[in-house]
Design goal:
alpha+beta; 8-stranded antiparallel barrel; 168 residues; globular; Lipocalin; 3 helices; 33% strand
């Protein structure tokens, strides 16, 4: 049994150095290797959905001119909803959704792969954007599309485009 485990470990280790060599980038002599931030972060632009399939909560993001605009609607019981729009800022895997409305509200979130997860606790001003028995707290959205056209498919509670006007 020990011989088989040793053999498996040796075979598994053989491919690792080849993989590492293939993934190593070649830097011309005299140049330094520096990661390009834009290339390492995927665009946030697109449509994200979560919750029930019959009435999905939606988030749309459109990046343009160095800014990322968003619109968000979260559905709760009895057709109650939270909704807002504004600017989103990104710092690695952390996001900050800043509402542009009558009350100060910034919703912190994390992005991992194609999933955006909102924080489980929010500032009191965020309740202004919500109806009874519904909140932005802890809501997760999965990416459904990654183009501005996909983002435009998101709808507000009145059925209008959630990200309309975000392209100006």
């Amino acid at each position: 049994m020990k011989k088989y485990l040793l053999l498996i470990a040796l075979v598994a280790g053989c491919g690792a150095s080849d993989r590492d060599e293939r993934n190593r980038s070649v830097v011309p002599e005299g140049k330094s290797a520096q990661p390009a931030p834009a290339a390492t972060q995927a665009s946030l632009t697109g449509l994200y959905e979560g919750g029930a399939a019959s009435a999905p909560s939606q988030l749309c993001v459109i990046e343009k001119g160095g800014q990322a605009h968003f619109g968000m609607v979260v559905w709760g019981a009895n057709l109650s909803a939270c909704g807002g729009a504004g600017l989103v800022e990104r710092d690695g895997d952390r996001l900050r959704f800043r509402m542009t409305g009558d009350q100060a509200c910034t919703v912190s979130a994390r992005i991992s792969g194609g999933r955006i997860s909102l924080a489980s606790s929010l500032a009191p001003g965020c309740s202004y954007y919500c109806g009874a028995r519904v909140s932005f707290e802890g809501v997760a959205f999965d990416r459904k599309g990654s183009s501005p056209a996909d983002a435009m498919k998101a709808r507000d509670p009145a059925g209008d485009p959630l990200c309309s006007g975000q392209d100006s």
